[in-house]
Design a protein that fits this description.
The protein is of the alpha+beta class. It has 2 domains: 1-56, no CATH class; 58-199 and 219-266, Trna Endonuclease, Chain: A, domain 1 (3-Layer(aba) Sandwich). It is 16% helix and 45% strand. It has 4 helices and 20 strands. It is elongated, with a radius of gyration of 22 Å.
Length: 271
């Protein structure tokens, strides 16, 4: 984790120094400051521990929070990584929490690993009830670059199998698509899913009575695959924040709450 507590309050691993005693904000157990040239500065629990916040976190996920938080701070916004939201259930941390000039809270959730539908829906409802705007940003998988091809506006994958939570995020944002993060290049892409059609080959067979039967020979929309169009890439510094509202809606096993939805908009280039 990137943030710990000490007697004077919260402190992040980048400004912390070795020597003082640091504590986990959740379990209050002692944590160790880890700093080095090959690791992201972070805090780790002293073993043994049963704290859920001691679960391993990928380097890419920690880096993504830092990239986004620093970009928000550079434009004069207050931004904190791993901000604890008391109204959340389970893991109460928002990956990054920012405050608009008018004081509106905006939660950024950078989703590196799959998250269950019940959990993402529960967290989304909690943010909504607390009046916190939210944006969910899935990580792009490496296979996207192997399976796709370059286009003038970005990148295109003809047969993409979206993870279940990605389908939820895309539906949550509606016609605005979903922002996605490339952990290798530390860049953001605007992603849009569209139906993918597959061709059912024509076949013939004979029944026991000798009657000839036909099947196939038509196109149908795939339930598994979608077409993924990516526009970009964009640096975090290129992106501004816009807030919209959405109504509650349910469809085909997915539930989206009425909520304030945050989205990125691309900053106009300087003249």
């Amino acid at each position: 984790m990137l943030v710990a507590e000490m007697n004077t309050g919260r402190i992040d691993a980048f400004t912390a120094e070795r020597g003082p005693t640091y504590y986990c904000p959740k379990c209050r157990g002692e944590v160790i400051l880890k700093k080095g040239r090959k690791v992201v500065h972070h805090f780790a629990h002293k073993p043994p521990t049963t704290c859920s916040w001691a679960n391993g976190e990928t380097r890419a996920h920690m880096e993504s929070k830092i990239v986004l938080a620093e970009a928000l701070k550079e434009r004069g916004l207050r931004a904190e990584v791993e901000f604890v939201v008391n109204t959340l259930l389970g893991d109460r941390r928002a990956d990054v929490m920012a405050w608009s000039p008018k004081g509106l809270q905006i939660a950024f959730e950078l989703q590196h690993t799959p998250i269950g539908l019940s959990e993402i829906e529960r967290r989304a409802v909690s943010y909504s009830k607390a009046g916190i705007a939210q944006i969910w940003i899935p990580f792009l998988q490496a296979k996207v670059w192997d399976d796709g091809a370059s286009r003038p506006s970005g990148w295109f994958v003809e047969r993409y199998s979206p993870r279940q939570f990605e389908r939820w995020v895309h539906g949550f944002n509606g016609k605005n698509g979903m922002w996605m993060y490339d952990p290798k290049e530390k860049l953001f892409w605007m992603g849009r899913l569209a139906g993918h059609q597959t061709y059912v080959e024509e076949s013939t067979w004979y029944s026991e009575g000798g009657e000839e039967n036909y099947s196939g020979g038509f196109w149908k929309f795939s339930k598994r695959f979608k077409e993924l169009s990516l526009e970009g890439p964009f640096k975090a510094d290129d992106l501004l924040i816009d807030i919209t509202r959405r109504r509650a809606f349910s469809s085909s096993g997915y539930n989206w709450p009425a909520a304030k939805v945050a989205r990125f908009i691309v900053r106009d280039p300087a003249p």
